[in-house]
Amino acid sequence: MRFLLDQDVYAVTVRFLRDHGHDVRTAADIGASRALDETLLTTAHEQARLFMTRDRDFGALVFVQGCEAGVIYLRVEPATFHAVHEELDHDQES
User: Fold this and answer.
1) Do 73 and 57 meet the contact criterion of CB atoms below 8 Å apart?
2) In this structure, are residues 48 and 1 in contact, taking their beta carbons and an 8 Å threshold?
3) What is the pTM of this model?
4) What is the mean pLDDT of the chain?
5) Bridge partners, 53 (sequence order)
6) pLDDT confidence bin for 72, thresholds 50/70/90
7) Can you give the pLDDT at residue 90?
8) Taking residues 46-69, what's their average pLDDT?
């Protein structure tokens, strides 16, 4: 899969996804670490990438304002990268 990751996603998660063969770009990779949320979603959409974040503000942009990007919201309990990776691994097996 193709992902664009927000700056709040753990660096170990970036490596985890890349190690699993995914095409991963981060906001920092594309020089957008300080970009507006709307800009990140537009970029993800234009590049045919799913946007991954831990920031709940993106829900309003997608559902209320109708931004056209797929968003994976990484709010997993417990909030550890191990729990996130287990969930991402689980989703790959489905």
Assistant:
1) no
2) no
3) 0.77
4) 82
5) 73
6) confident
7) 72
8) 74
Closest CA to 36 of 52, 58, 19: 58
- Dihedral of CA atoms 78, 82, 87, 88 in degrees, nearest 10, equals 140
Domain extent for 10: 2-93
Please count the structural domains in the chain: 1
Helix (H) or strand (E) holding 89: helix 81-93
Tokens of 28: 């920092």
Dig out the tokens for 4 from the structure.
Answer: 């664009």
Q: How far apart are CA 75 and CA 40, in angstroms?
A: 19
CA gyration radius for the chain? 13
In the structure encoding, which two tokens stand for residue 47, read together?
Answer: 């590049």
Compute the Cα dihedral for 58, 26, 10, 48 and give only its sign.
positive
pLDDT-derived band at 3, boundaries 50, 70, 90: very high
**Which among 11-25, 63-77, 80-94 has the top mean pLDDT?**
11-25
Residue with tokens 């920031």: 55
